[in-house]
Amino acid sequence: MNKTPQVPPVPDRKLADAALVRRLIAAQFPQWSGLRVRPVDAQGWDNCTFRLGDDMLVRLPTAEEYALAVEKEQRWLPVFAPALPVPVPQPLARGVPDEGFPHSWSVYGWLDGEPASRAVIEDLTAFAIDLAEFLVCLRRIDPTGGPEPGLHNWFRGGPVARYDQMARQALATLDGVIRTDAAADVWERAVQAPWDGRLVWFHGDVASGNLLVQDGVLAAVIDFGTCGVGDPACDLAVAWTLLSGKSRQVFRERLGVDDATWLRGQGWALWKALVGCAGAVHDGERPPADTFAVLEQIIATHELQD
User: What is the distance between the alpha carbons of residues 34 and 106, in angstroms, rounded to a whole number?
Assistant: First the structure.
């Protein structure tokens, strides 16, 4: 069994604030030094993000490992953009370590929209169709030269079995909290599900926060820091974290996903939910309601199929 990879580091948000961004912009891109800088409302994990004027944003990695994605996004996002049905971030400039900030960083064009949720999506089934079409188009892009799974994306696109030790530790922690026998069976099936080895592009983190909605429909897909070429099953986790019922079924049909790939995708969703719930229990807290609901949904689907 593969060893568990290094756990992604906790972000250091003290590295960056608006004053630092203003200094970096003034030193490296003085043509934009007069523009207003302000933090965005919803901050991600891997980067601190700031608006730069009305039409741009600045993304500063929160740890050295996350900075590995800067060069990758700068290289590949311009390749992706013309092949995809909705906008993706447009790199406008690449910053270098300077002015008290130790990592490479990026300036992108601003994309309007709000994070996907059932509250803002007009028709979840139509949304699932649009998302599936996006992923189909992404997979059709020539993978030659693309980065295979590694530390740059925490081994997304590789075997979910790489996280076997972490998943089983989480199951032990959650014993008595969830139906661990059923969850363990789902996990084992995911680990054993074969992959044909064909390399295709994947996003790596198809999650609500990276899917922007405007006027009720999918308007953009952002944050390609975990993208790469490999097994695209990791992009299926959204089927359990956001979709359900008919929308999940249509999503699978439009992607043309076989049983083994579907099981591997379910494994990615299960792994993330197990770790999230186990972390809360370990800290003496109740599992997050949304993450716990994902676990229950996966287990219930599994029991119905049996």
Answer: 18
238 and 130 Cβ atoms separated by less than 8 Å: no
Low-confidence winner among 14-23, 138-147, 191-200 (lowest mean pLDDT): 14-23
Is the model's pTM score more than 0.90?
yes
Which residues does residue 220 pair with via DSSP β-bridges, in sequence order? Answer: 212
Sign of CA dihedral 149, 150, 153, 156: positive
Strands (E), the chain: 37-39, 47-52, 56-61, 91-95, 105-109, 114-115, 200-202, 211-214, 217-221, 228-230
User: What three-state secondary structure class fits 273?
Assistant: helix
pLDDT at 2: 45
Which residues are CB-neighbours of 295 under 8 A, at least 6 positions away? 178, 183, 270, 273, 274, 277, 287
Q: For the chain, what are the domain ranges? A: 13-111, 115-305
- The DSSP line for 217-270 is EEEEE---TT-EEE-GGGGGTHHHHT--HHHHHHHHHHHT--HHHHHHHHHHHH
Q: How confident is the model over 109-167, as pLDDT tens digits?
A: 999 999 999 999 999 999 999 999 999 999 999 999 999 999 999 999 999 999 999 99
DSSP category for residue 153 = G
Domain 115-305 has CATH 3.90.1200.10: yes
Report CA torsion sign: 255, 261, 266, 269: negative
CATH superfamily membership of 13-111? Phosphorylase Kinase; domain 1 (3.30.200.20)
